[in-house]
């Protein structure tokens, strides 16, 4: 006999919210780095400054993509948890207890 599916919606919500918190912390941490690179690029004329700005822009795009993916994953966890809880609540009482045969 297989084990019943068990999940803790509160734990899933906490973990998803932790992911969202990490996304925001990551964003805030990198604001300073972007500003530093922008300032350095402005001090170097020509090819060096342009290369630094290109580096900053590339990192910014990569960081934004990572933040979006992690944020989307956290949102998916929250949405899926809500759907499972809703289905579980909607089905409560429709079926007999475990092993009741009904």
Automatic annotation (TrEMBL):
Domain of life, per lineage: Bacteria
InterPro entries on file: ESAT-6-like_sf (IPR036689)
Record protein name field: WXG100 family type VII secretion target
């Amino acid at each position: 006999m297989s084990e019943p599916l068990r999940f803790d919606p509160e734990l899933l919500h906490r973990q998803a919210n932790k992911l969202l918190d990490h996304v925001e912390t990551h964003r805030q941490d990198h604001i300073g780095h972007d500003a530093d690179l922008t300032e350095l690029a402005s001090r170097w004329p020509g090819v060096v400054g342009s290369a630094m700005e290109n580096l900053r822009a590339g990192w910014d795009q990569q960081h934004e993509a990572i933040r979006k993916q992690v944020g989307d994953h956290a949102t998916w966890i929250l949405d899926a948890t809500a759907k499972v809880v809703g289905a579980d609540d909607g089905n409560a009482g429709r079926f007999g207890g475990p092993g009741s045969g009904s």
